[in-house]
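User: I'm preparing a small set of examples for a lab meeting where we compare how different chains pack in three dimensions. I only have the primary sequence for this one, and I'd like the structure in token form so I can line it up with the others. Please keep the answer compact; I'll paste it straight into my notes.
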Amino acid sequence: MEKKLTADNEIDIYWYPNRQTHSFCLSLYVRAGVLYESEEENGITHFLEHVLFRNINHLMNGRMYREIDKLGLYFNGVTYKEFMQLYIIGAPEHFRQAADILLRAFEPVALPVSELETEKQRVKSEIREADEFKSLDYFAGTFVWEKTPLSRSILGSRGTVSRFSCRKIAAYQRNVLSPGNVFFYVTGNVTDEEIEYLARQAEKLSFAPDTGTETERRRNMAPVPERFGRRDGRIHVKNSSYCMIQFSYDLFAERFTGAELALLYDILFSGENSLMHQELSEKRGLIYSFSPALEKYCNIGRLCFTYEVARKDLLRSLQVVRESLSAVGTDMEERLSLVLPEYTDNAYMVYDDNENFNWQRAYESHIMGDKSRSIEETKAAFLQVSPDRLRAMAGEIFAADNLVLCIKGDRKRVDEEEIRRACGADKKGG
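Assistant: Understood. Below is the structure token output for the 430-residue chain.
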């Protein structure tokens, strides 16, 4: 069962011990990302993630990676649209050393200008790669999340990154790495004594009275685009020499439980036995690559999937998608029976992966703000989902006027009216 300890300086520490495993995962979560960034600071959270690693190494006289290797630790970070995670995985006997390393993230950024410029070049290279491989995602995001911060890239742009100074990064670090805006989450083989050590070390951190971020501003509520849930049926085309499609459906997340969304997502899109992968790839051979995603905030979100297809098969693939989504409810009982065991029979397997379990618990309970549940309670939530409920959800989500359709292809050869008819987007939104 999850436990909680609050340090004297108001930093929360949550942990879910499991002495049966042979590792721990220690994570620092920061409520920051493009959801909270201004246009001018777009990408600053992701850049801070990079800078923190370089700054910790600098503070350790360039020996951080040597120490990590010597202790057999794994240290990594990732930035999402609404939070940043830094985490260390290792053997239980090295928990205290890992804690000491991670807590250095709070020490003020004091990098030489040359090191900051080197990190800028690394991030700009990452941006160039992302522009090549994720250009359709970025393109679609400008229409799905139009005129909101969520339409921007997590990475920022080469322009915004170029303008980040040491002073600006240090100020941003003080702002977001503050009590009320951060928390620790620990999973795996860890004792209460080790958690107390983490708390004692965390209590040594000092924060200026004016650096705390108001909790209300960090509630993971996405700004709602003007036409969200009532799209106009337009087809958005990005000129390209090859053909890729992204279907994106608006999601009023407050209307559905996490269990309901997970099951519907798995039935339709997750894995080789999912409906869409079977219909597009296995049965007809129209596609090979297939990338689904569920992007969710406390109030709204989207369900999307992307695939590459030969130009000659474009219309046929759109028809298959339309037909498949229209008929999704016909064998829902059987499909539900195929995906449900992952969450019921295999429920306790989540303990075997400390990294994934750490992220899952922290995200659901403390980023999304859901009630913290035991494994048995979680199983019960999935068992309560009925085929009729999933049918009703599918009917609501996959409505024609709820679709944002984006295509990468030869603009001159794209007949938008033909495409609209093929995918069922010929009805105008409200």
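A couple of notes for your slides: Residues 54 and 115 are 8 Å apart (CA to CA). Residues 211-217 have pLDDT under 50 and may be disordered.

User: Perfect, thanks.
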